[in-house]
Amino acid sequence: MATRQLRYREALREAMIEEMERDPNVFLMGEEVGHYQGAYKVSEGMLEKFGDKRVVDTPIAESGFAGIGVGAAMVGLRPIIEFMTWNFSAVAFDQILNNAAKVRQMSGGQFSCPIVFRGPNASARQVGSQHSHAMEHFYATVPGLKVVAPAFPKDAKGLMKAAIRDDNPVLVMESETLYSVKGDVPDDLSDVVIGKAQIARPGKDVTLIAYSRATHIALDAATALEKVGISAEVVDLRSLRPLDEDTICDSVRRTHRAVVVHEGWPYGGVGAEIVDRIQRLAFDSLEAPVLRVTTLDVGMPYNAKLEQLCMPQTARVVAAVTKVVARGRA
Amino acid sequence: MTPVSEHDPDIGLFTVLREDGSADPKTDPNVPDAVLLRGYREMRRLRMIDAKMIVLQRQGRVGFYGACTGQEATPIATGLIASEGDWVYPALREQSVMLVRGFPLDAFIAQVFGNSGDVQKGRQMPSHHSGRSVNQVSWSSCIGPQIPQAVGTAFAMKKAKSGNVAFGFMGDGATSQPDFHAAMNFAGVWKVPCILVCQNNHWSISVPTEKQTASRTIAIKARAYGLPGVRVDGNDLLALYKVLSDAKERAKNGGGATFVEALTYRIGAHSTSDDPTRYRSEAEVNAWKKKDPLDRLRKHLVLRGLVSDAGDVAMDEELSAEVAASIKRVEALPPPDRASLFDDVYATLPWHLREQRDALVRGPSPVPHG
Q1: Helix (H) and strand (E) counts for chain A?
Q2: What domains can you pick out in chain B, each with its CATH number?
Q3: Which of A124, A167, A190, B334 could form an S-S bond across to B347 if both were Cys, CB 3.0 to 4.6 Å?
Q4: Which residues of B are catalytic?
Q5: Is it the case that residue B213 has pLDDT exceeding 80?
Q6: Structural domains present in chain A
Q7: How large is the average pLDDT for residues B93-97?
Q8: Using an 8 Å Cβ cutoff, are A168 and B347 in contact?
Q9: Is B313 on the interface with A (CB under 8 A)?
Q10: Chain B interface test: which of A106, A111, A117 (most B C-beta within 10 Å)
Q11: Tens digit of pLDDT for each residue in A10-53?
C-alpha cells in the first residue's frame, strides 16, 4: 500500500478533491475559496479544477452562507462550508446550533442536513483574541453535531473524507499552525473514522490526552519526560464528538494517571468533559487527580511573549505530569 | 439618484379588489372560478382552525399558538400557486401553505398537540410545522434564519436546473435581522429562483413598523440588493395571486429572485403569550377589520354570484365538523414513545444515545449524562 508525504493543507485539499470527483453533489463555498485559492491556500487549484459552480466565492456573510449551506443540504447537495477561521463562525452560530444541528431532530427525521463546516481553529500566531478562539468547546456540547480535530495530515485527509460522506453536520477543526506540517498519508485510510482516538505514542506512567495542535505539544512533552525517566502515553483524540472514551479510559487504567492538554479556556469545555469521563469510568484506577493544561483564562493577547505564556506549553505539561506522577508514589 | 414615485412597484400598492368588491380590470389576473373558490374555502377553514386552536390553548389543552387571523390571503395564495416541487420556508404565520398543498389536517393539528400523530414527534413547539411530503421546512424561533435557507434551497434548484422555486417568508421585524440582509444580498448576486415575501402586519409583538425601519416602504429595500421589489395589498387574494405568480414565472425563467412586501395587519395577538391591548388602539384594529381579506374576497365572489349566505352556512357547518372531528381524533392520541426521544439526533443512533435510551426505557431515572 502506497504512502506519501503530504502537508496538512494538501491532505485536506486532496480529501475534498477526491470527494468532489466522486460525488457531484459535493461543493465548496466560502470567502476567498476560489480566485484567491483560500485564505490559507487549502483550496489551491480547486477553482480551476471544478469551476465556479462548485468552488463558490461568497460575499462576506458567515450567517448568510452557513444558512445557504443548510438550505442547499436539505435538498440533496453536500456543501463544504469554509470559515476563514472558526472565530468568524460566531456570527453563524445560530445557523449551526439552531438549524444544522437541529433540523433532523426537530422535524422528526423528515429532513437531513449533510453539511461540513471547516476552517482553522484556535491560536495562530500573534493575531489577537478575535482570531485565536478555540471554538470546538462551544460546538462539542451540541447534540446533532459531530466535531473532529485532526493533528496529522493522515487524519486530516481521512477525517475530511469521512466528514463529507457523513449524513450529519460535521465540523472539522483545522489549525493554521498545522497547515504546513508534513506527514505520511497512506492510500488506505480505513482506520481513520469519526469517533475513534489513536495512541500517538505508547507509554506506561501517565496518559496525556490531546487533539489538534495540542497533540504535538503532548508529544514534545513526552519526549522531554522520557529524559527524566517518565514514560508518557499520548492519546490523540481526533474526534471530540463522539468522544472515544474507551481508548481514553483503557489507557488511564494502564497508567493510573492523566493530564489533559488543549487550547481554549479552563472553564468547562472538552477537557472538563474528558476529566468527568475518567473520574466516572476509571475512578478505581486513578492514583492522582486528573490535571488539565489549557490556555490561561484570559482573552488571547497579541504580544508574542504574552501569547506564548497564555497558550499550553510543553513546560507546563511537564510540570503537570511531574505533579501527578509524584502523587501516590511517595 | 433614482427618482421615487407612487407609481413605482416598491412604493405604491398593487391592488385588484376594489371597495365595491369588483376586480380592477387593469390588474385582474382572471383567476379561474374553481381556484378562487378553493382559496375561499381554505381561508375560511384556516380562520376556523386558528380560532379553535386559541380556545384549546386557553383551556390548557395545547401549550402555545400563533394565529394568522387577518393575514390568511398570503399563505393561501402561495399554496394555490406553488408547484409540487417548490419548497416553502414559512415564518410564524404561513404554516397553512402546507394545508393548501395537501398536508393532512390531522397531522397539522397533531403538531400543535405534539403527540404521536405529529410527524415531528413532539419535538417542536406549536406553530413550527414542517412536512417533507409537501417540501415545507419549519421556521426557526430565532427570527430570520429561514431566509438564507430559502435562498440556499433556490441555489441548489438553480444548480439542478429543476425549474422549481423556493418561497421564503418573514415578518416586518425580520427585515432588521442580519440574516435578511445576507439572504437578500445572496439572492441578488446569485440570481436564484427564490421569492422572498415579507408579511408586513405592522407589529413585531409590540414594536410598530415605523420603529423597525426608517425606509419609506419595506419593498424599497430590494433596490439596495438589485432585486425587483413589489408592494402588494396583502389582504387581497387576487393581487397576491398575480404578484406571486409573476414572481414565480420570473424565477422559473432565469430572472432571479423577487422581494414582495404584502401589506396586512395582525388582527389578533402576536401569540397566545401576548396581550396587544397594552400597546395598540382598538380604533386601529377596527379600521383594519374593515379591510379583512376574507370579507373582501367574499364580497367579490358574491358579486360574481359564486357564493351565497346559504352556501356559506353549509360550508361552515362542513368545515366546523371537519376540524372538530380532527381535533377529537388527534387529542385522543398518546404521546410519542419515550424511546423515540433519541431518534433523529443523528442519522443513525450513536452508542451513547443507545445507552441513554436503554436506561430511560428500563427505569424512571436516566443517567445524568455522558
Answers
A1: 12, 14
A2: 33-336 (3.40.50.970), 338-370 (no CATH)
A3: A167
A4: 266, 270, 279
A5: yes
A6: 3-186 (3.40.50.970), 198-329 (3.40.50.920)
A7: 97
A8: yes
A9: no
A10: A106
A11: 999 999 999 999 999 999 999 999 999 999 999 999 999 999 99
Q: What is the DSSP string of A149-179?
A: ---SHHHHHHHHHHHHH-SS-EEEEE-TTTT
- Picking from B137, B142, B350, the nearest residue to A74 by CB comes out as B137
Say if residue B265's pLDDT is above 80. Answer: yes
Establish whether A62 is a catalytic residue. Answer: yes
Rounded Cα distance between B62 and B120, Å, is: 16
pLDDT, tens digit (0-9, with 9 covering 90-100), for B215-230? 999 999 999 999 999 9
Interchain contact, B347 vs A106, CB within 8 Å: no
Which pLDDT tens digit goes with each residue over B355-366? Answer: 999 988 887 655
- Give me the pLDDT at residue B360, please: 87
Residue A315 has pLDDT above 60, yes or no: yes
Q: Full-prediction pTM beyond 0.90?
A: yes
Nearest to A108 among B120, B140, B152 (CB): B120
Catalytic pick among A14, A131, A133, A263: A131
By the CB < 8 Å criterion, does B163 face chain A? no
Grid coordinates given for B121: 414527534
Establish, for the pair of chains A and B, how many residue pairs have beta carbons separated by less than 8 Å.
Answer: 149
List, in order, residues 6 or more apart from A215 with CB less than 8 Å away.
A151, A152, A200, A234, A236
pLDDT of residue B2: 61
Partners of A105 on chain B (C-beta within 8 Å) are 123, 344-345
> Which chain B residue lies closest to A278 (C-alpha atoms)?
B370
Question: Does an H or E element contain A30, and which?
Answer: strand A26-30
Cα B59 from Cα B52, distance rounded (Å):
11
Q: d(Cα A307, Cα A302) in Å, to the nearest integer?
A: 6
Q: Do A68 and B152 touch (CB under 8 A)?
A: yes
Measured CA to CA, the distance from residue B107 to residue A107 in angstroms comes to: 13
Q: Is the ipTM of this complex over 0.90?
A: no
Q: HEC profile for B232-286?
A: EECCCHHHHHHHHHHHHHHHHCCCCCEEEEEECCCCCCCCCCCCHHHCCCHHHHH
Closest CA of chain B from A161, distance in Å: 17
In contact, A85 and A134? CB cutoff 8 Å: no
Contact A111 B130 (CB under 8 A): yes
Q: Is A137 a catalytic residue?
A: no
**8 A C-beta contact, residue B231 and residue B190:** no
Our CA angle for B120, B267, B66, nearest 5°, is 15
pLDDT (0 to 100) of residue B5: 86
Question: Buried b / exposed e across A298-312, counting CB within 10 Å, b at 16+?
Answer: eebbeeeeebeebbb
The number of C-alpha atoms within 13 Å of B137 and in the hemisphere containing its C-beta is 35
Give me the pLDDT at residue A330, please: 46
